[in-house]
Amino acid sequence: MASKPSEPEKGIGAADKAQAAGRAVPVNRVSHIEGSQQVDAAAKAAPLSALQGVAAVGKTASADRVASIADRLRRGVITNQQAVEELIEDTIRASLPGLTESSPLSQKLREILQSYAKDDPYLFAKVRRLSGDQE
Fold first, then answer.
1. What is the pTM of this model?
2. Count of structural domains within the chain
């Protein structure tokens, strides 16, 4: 029958019986670590605030689209209803990028926005102001 290896002694007496390991060998200073170039490059990357510029560009583009719709509405190129439809479609594209116009989610959002545009007096007044109608 095989014998079980003996357990190392524990407690205060164990330190006395431990073998001397000798002095630790000093470690040479490390001057270069593989992969440190990638860390340095990441540290030099543009700060997060640069990403905020991308969001600002997106907001500007959206404002430009709204301004374009408002301008065409004022000039009489499109009707109030066409302007509302364009704004709804623009909102759907911006809110649900990558989804097709026929996706169930796009259709549901379109229904909700159309309902708001039809039933909300505040939005109705906004559309009238966009067209230059001050009644």
1. 0.49
2. 1
